[in-house]
Amino acid sequence: MTAPRTFTVVGNWKMNTLKEDIDKLSSILNTATIFPNTEVVVGCPSCYLEYARQQLPPTIGVAAQNCFKEAKGNFSGEISPAMIQDCGCEWVILGHPERRMLFQECDELIGQKVAHAQKAGLKIVACVCETKADRDEGLTQQVLAAQMESLAASISDWSRVVVAFEALWASNTGVLATPAQVQETMAMIREWLRQNVSNDVADSTRLIYAGSVSSGNCEELARLRDVDGFLVGSAALKPDIVNILKALQLSASIACTARITATLHCIDDE
Ligand code: PGA
């Protein structure tokens, strides 16, 4: 039997933190309750990787938000997996939708980066996404399959990869994906892994959801069968993150209360 998947929350600070912000966020994270079945990683700007690593406890991972596909060379502005490791960090986020959309990173380049980062020994948050047009035109399955295919061709050790799916149309747009939409899409990705990689990989790979996850919707989303955590942007910059880290436990206690209430109703009805 496959071991339960560790609930994973990746707080992506994007290009929003100076040292003083990292100090504040680190003090929030340092005192937050983190349950043993929850893994926490922050996505940090590359110039502050080492600084963030020093501020945070070793139990919280620090990820770069990108890296290049080569070990070293004349690639101005890029950083390598070895540099990330030299700053004491062991994670990288690759293929983030903002890299795909704003910086025109294509599947091929992302695949090359994933292959190199994995060979170098980094753990990877590998992102896939859909746009509003993809969803409106019924292309979700097709676009995710294409992105997954390119990622899968570059991954040799799935145990060191977390797949993040972002519904771009639900990220800071004022529109939220419904739990049913999230579950359906995450199940699609897991099924893709089952059909194209293996049952083991499908059962063991963590699939995390992104799209305006906050303390308001995290408990409901954490209950979904194919959601193993979250990639959090805006809410990762606020004290809100503390509740998101507890989403699995909160959702379990709500489910438990609901079961008890239902049982009591049954007893009342008898
Ligand atoms: P959001 O960002 O939580 O603000 O939607 C998620 C992400 O893009 O990583």
TrEMBL record:
GO terms for biological process: gluconeogenesis; glyceraldehyde-3-phosphate biosynthetic process; glycerol catabolic process; glycolytic process. NCBIfam families: tim (TIGR00419). It catalyses: D-glyceraldehyde 3-phosphate = dihydroxyacetone phosphate. GO terms for molecular function: triose-phosphate isomerase activity. InterPro entries: Aldolase_TIM, TIM_sf, Triosephosphate_isomerase. Its EC number is 5.3.1.1. The keyword Isomerase applies. PROSITE patterns: TIM_2. PANTHER family: TRIOSEPHOSPHATE ISOMERASE. Homodimer. Pfam families: TIM. One of its GO terms (cellular component) is cytosol. This is Triosephosphate isomerase. Keywords: Gluconeogenesis, Glycolysis, Isomerase. Pathway: Carbohydrate biosynthesis; gluconeogenesis; Carbohydrate degradation; glycolysis; D-glyceraldehyde 3-phosphate from glycerone phosphate: step 1/1. Belongs to the triosephosphate isomerase family.
